[in-house]
Amino acid sequence: MSTEQIISSLPFVGGKKTTPQHPLGPLTAGEITESAKLIKSIWPANTNIQFKSITLQEPKKADLVPFLAAEHAGQSTPTIERRSFVVYYLRNTNKLHEAVVSLSQGKVESNVRLGPNVHSNADGDEIIRVEQIALEDEQVKAEIAKLKLPEGTVVISDPWIYGSDGINDGLFTDNERMFQCFLYVRDPNNASELDSNHYAMPISISPVVSAETMKVTRIDFLPTGADATVKEPGPYKVQPPNEYIPEAQDLRTDVKPLNVVQPEGTSFEVTKFSEQGQSVAWQKWDFKVGFNQREGMVLYDVHYAGRPLFYRLSLSDMNIPYADPRHPYHKKAAFDLGDAGAGIMANNLQLGCDCLGSIYYLSAVLSDDKGEPLEMPNCVCIHEQDAGIGWKHTNYRTGRAAVVRNRELVLQSIITVSNYEYILAFQFNQAGEFMYEVRATGILSTQPIDEGISVPWGTVVHPGVLAAHHQHIFSLRVDPMIDGPLNRVVFDEAHPMPRSDFNPHGVGYTVSETPITTSGGYDLDWDVNRIFKIQNAAVKNPVNGKSVAYKIMAPPFQKMLADKDSFHFKRAEFADHNIYVTSYKDGELYAGGTYTNQSRGGTGVRSFADRKDNVLDDDIVVWVQFGINHVPRIEDFPVMPCEVLKVAFKPVNFFDKNPALDVPQSVQSFNKSTLMGVEHKQEAGTAVVKDGELCCNKESSKL
Ligand SMILES: [Cu+2]
Question: Which of 157, 409, 570, 604 could bond 131 through an S-S bridge, CB–CB 3.0 to 4.6 Å?
Fold first, then answer.
């Protein structure tokens, strides 16, 4: 990122001091308003500012660690200055600025103009306007007219982030911030249905809109055959619709209710640690929850039974590069967090629909393009769920079983990014484990294809509709403090023991542990069962003397397929390794860099790691990548069954035994299950529900 310090003669104007807030508390509506006011005050009164984000500037870790230590010890906390981080354009220009506002002092502390080739995220107001601009353009209308669509047909425009290819060829330059609009029609035979699935009817006209002038600068025509040839738009053949809405289905009638009932309420507690920040305590876990425009949910200061585990956890980035090599699809590579924002796109979650059981909702306040507070109601839901059996053993000699359920606490947020949905969840259990789960759903991004054609970079999911292959690659940022601030990452590998007098049958194997000393990208290797662990080498397990650790159980995925010289590869700096380990630096929060829109690389985690810093027994950050290569199936259309990805973090030699031993037994008197069949041999009174204590007893002791 190149930056240019503005030499401004404009005075910084002092503002009203706001009420002190916890240093990790998300900005309040008042702080957002104050930040915008202070930024406006450094420009002439008639300056039209387009705010891109106004968010908490988190304190330096060196300041925050003593604050949190004092807080945990119940001591008085030091004062930490409240700051906001503001990104804005002078509207209708490419003049992007990044500012830090001291809310404590009521002044703009720094204000830097960024560029060239640094672009900010799209905002909601802008996306709606770009949609309209693309459809109202006279040239676009003239091209649409060539389709000879039936009277009353509605054309829909989906603005996409333009992407980068480094080509500087007149109209084909990505120097300026632009949108590539993909157009569709809504079913002409059901034109009044606003929720009709337009992704089943893509058309080949693709206007490009300048985010600076807000005008159509070019109209691309999409290739629809097996090669890169483009054709003039011709009469459109109306295909049958392919709807996802329930009224278009013949709904099955044999689903009986499955209610989640918690007669005594939930086992978790939510309390405010600041006006907009909430603390959650559940089953020995406690942490703070923040929410911001870019990452959505952020967890801070995560402890289990009072022991520190994670300083900060968040989804840092995601990238979705597409496989179609033809213009303009070759630039299609969404960074949904940096290009738009997981917070700003969060759904308003609905009781009994998105979340079952006894639900606690968190709401947030973000900001809009005018710098005004934007309410984000119910953007996180918190609930418990039953995740099957936690552990069980039956003593076959006595027939006595000991069994507990696995209760999980879930913090869920759902984001809609145009066609697609991601259901993002932190999940905690009673065995000291936590998981990060992504469910990918929603509608495939589609494009037109001539009938009868098949291509190896996509799947035809409906007549005339191609869904190109694409990868979803996520980066979870883990800032650990496993039993203290200085951690290391090690990896275990299992290797066969050489044949010897000791191993004469060639069956032995051993597990070795190797520490990572230098920042870099590292990979899984299933052939040697390579497992990465975050470890505190200074704290030993009292029983076996091993260093306490948490292991990372991340599913394998195919690394980015785009080649190393491609802009996709340069930009998605996290997409080439399962794990990155870096030394902690304030402000290094995003694996693809702070500004991903039309980025060119050099500002993300690969660059952080290239410092080749020491990461052994230091303040480190672990970036965990996971994902899928999404080769669309016809079953993924018109809406995709959830594809579930899960990363788990499990204690290794951290406790001295199974930490879920103290979970009360799973018994009928507590669970109140209902007997539905006559085949069940459980004889009440003789063994099973004795005093409401046990599920099973002696009667059927068989192996
Ligand atoms: Cu996908």
Answer: 157
Domain count, the chain: 4
**Is 103 part of a structural domain of the chain?**
yes
Reported as a single tens digit per residue, the pLDDT across 36-68 is 999 999 999 999 999 999 999 999 999 999 999
Q: Among 652, 676, 691, where does a domain finish?
A: 652
ipTM for this prediction? 0.99
Distance CA 192, CA 19 (A): 50
- Judge whether 420 counts as a catalytic residue: yes
Instruction: Give domain status of residue 463, yes or no.
Output: yes
DSSP lists the bridge partners of residue 8 as none
- In the chain, the amino acid numbered 535 is Q
State the burial class of residue 20 (Cβ atoms within 10 Å of its Cβ: 0-12, 13-18, 19+).
Answer: middle
Mean pLDDT of 421-440: 98
Q: Do 450 and 561 sit in the same domain of this protein?
A: yes
> Which band of pLDDT confidence, cut at 50, 70 and 90, is reported for residue 21?
confident
Cα(470) to centroid(ligand 1), Å: 6
Q: Are residues 99 and 179 in the same domain?
A: no
For ion ligand 1, residues whose CB falls within 5 Å:
630
Say which of 336, 339, 369, 483 is annotated catalytic: 336
**DSSP calls for 568-607:** HHHH-TTTT-SEEEEE--TT---TT-S--BT--SSSSHHH
682: pLDDT confidence band, cut at 50, 70 and 90?
low
pLDDT of residue 180: 98
From residue 400, alpha-carbon distances to 34, 333, 672, 690, 697 in Å are 65, 56, 20, 12, 5
- The number of beta carbons lying within 10 Å of the beta carbon of residue 666 is 21
Question: What's the CA-to-centroid distance between 472 and ligand 1, angstroms?
Answer: 6
Same domain? 500 vs 564: yes
User: Which residues are 618's β-sheet partners?
Assistant: 487
Instruction: Compute, in angstroms, the gap from residue 322 CA to the centroid of ligand 1.
Output: 9
Range of the domain at 687: 667-703
Alpha helices, DSSP H, located in 45-154? 61-72, 124-136, 138-145
Domain match, 681 and 644 both: no
Looking at the domain assignment, is residue 250 inside a domain? Answer: no
Closest residue by Cα to residue 293 from 88, 582, 64, 39: 88
Task: Look at the chain and count its residues.
Answer: 703
Same-domain status, 635 and 509: yes
Q: Among 8, 97, 18, 93, which Cα is nearest to 44's?
A: 8
Contact between 374 and 359 (Cβ < 8 Å): no
Report DSSP letters for 626-637, one per residue: EEEEE---GGG-
Per-residue pLDDT at 532: 98
What does the CA dihedral 437, 331, 448, 227 come to, rounded to 10 degrees?
A: -130
Q: Ligand 1 centroid vs 455 CA: distance in angstroms?
A: 17
Sign of CA dihedral 159, 164, 167, 173: positive
Structure tokens at 31: 């702080």
Q: Is residue 260 part of a domain?
A: no
